[in-house]
Amino acid sequence: MDKKYFFFDIDGTLTDNATKKMVPSALEAVHKLMEAGHFVSLATGRANYKAEGFRAKYDFPNMVCNGGHGIFYDGELRENRPIDYDKSLAIYRQALDLGYGVLVAIDDSEKVYANSFRFYETAGIRKEATTYIINENFDPANEEHIFKLYVAIPKEDEHLLTLKDTVGHLRFQNEYLMFQADAKKEGILKMLEYAGGSPKDVVVFGDDYNDLCMFDEQFYCVAMGNACDALKEKADFVAEKNVEDGIYKACESHGWF
Length: 257
Description:
Blueprint: E1 5-8, H1 24-35, E2 39-43, H2 48-57, E3 63-65, E4 70-73, E5 76-80, H3 85-97, E6 102-105, E7 111-114, H4 118-123, E8 131-134, E9 148-151, E10 169-173, E11 176-179, H5 184-195, E12 202-206, E13 220-223, H6 229-234, E14 237-238, H7 246-253
Parallel strand pairs: 1-2, 1-12, 2-3, 7-8, 12-13, 13-14
Antiparallel strand pairs: 3-4, 4-5, 6-9, 9-11, 10-11
Helix pairs in contact: 1-7
């Protein structure tokens, strides 16, 4: 059997969105793939600090994280890059000029910084563990890196933020737009440099819009049955829903075990 390089999204692919736990049959499939000699890695938009617990719990030796900017290879974090500094700073300035609150992550942690309570007053508390540091003198221009931006701008007003397309962005929550690395494909290619693999041997599994960027024609792309329609249309194969043993059945039917 030819060695394959498998990359799995976490949320909605490996995990049941209802329980937030890994689907048992998916875990069994991952173990069987590794036993068969394949390379297995996570491929997630989560920051390293958010993904590390999941990686360690299920003993994944490799992980593309931080939207493709983080590379955890063979048990060690090798890279973890911020987003483009100058472009992010320009978006920050424009958002403030337009009157929108902005939170800034200057490192890979749950801490975010702002110069006012405007984000909270507009969007409220973020729906995940966050440490807020509010300082009227805060200016990201005085910091070395920008890892993420959170802009409290309604969807109908996004067109006013004319610089938004210069940096990868997603809207997981209605209350704010998140700017982060959107380069899973590039992260996978970087991982292959470490692992010595070829793009033609890559298999990717995903379910949501943020996986579109890794559904590349160089790879064999598997969309879960619970995936968004846009991902299914781009896929080489549509599996059954993840909670209906979609990953296991896909691997079995392709003879990857």
